[in-house]
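User: Here's a chain of 251 residues. Predict its fold as tokens.
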Amino acid sequence: MKRTGKVLCWCLAVFVAVSMVMYGCAKKAEPPKPPIKIGAVFSVTGGAAKLGGPEKNAATMFVEQINAAGGLNGSLIELIVEDDQSVEENTQNSVKKLIAQDNVAAIIGPSISGAAYAAAPLCEEAGVPLVSFAAAWVQLFIDKDPAKPMYKFVFKTPQNDSDCARKILEDCKAKGYTKVAIITVSNGFGQAGRAELRSSRPSTASASSPTRPIRRTPPNSLRTSRKSKRRNPRRSSTGPSPSHRVSSPGR
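Assistant: Prediction complete.
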């Protein structure tokens, strides 16, 4: 009996020990996986804010939806947004920060073509994928050949500006237009778009005149000029003031 009692005691002791170990393992939760850091460079402010603002809101919304559904492979996504203020130099600084300090896995953006050109070599050198939101593409491929990408880690989502140029010229031809003037902005997107329009025109069309920048009068200077004219009107007894004279046809 004594021997049987000792065996039972040992069995109970082992059972209790095993139960405690199993209970401890069950209570111990698996450590959470580190978040997946995704960088974003948008023109939230500045001249391209009409693009960057909605892009930031959309990216934030999608990340919230993905995280609410459990994340990606068990890891939540951490979105780090940088505002380049529509300035290419700021884009480069933001990309460097996201790569060196935040250690992001990939970067989405920028919002405009010139900024994308500025960011592309930095991401390529670091081996960090860049998914551009800009449309200009001529500087991303060798000889404008989609089969010859200049970068391995740079991608884009919008249509090519060459597609836009082709459709514009097709529409002009369908409407019977024989002369077309080109007005573009002096940034990466405008320069690339102008080049596409010129290269896509029919071979029989004549080349347009050289590019001439349009000088804009600052609004404050214009208002000052108008005020001075109202205060010091130049009147003439023999005819209308110079500001109302109309040149004769043919001049």
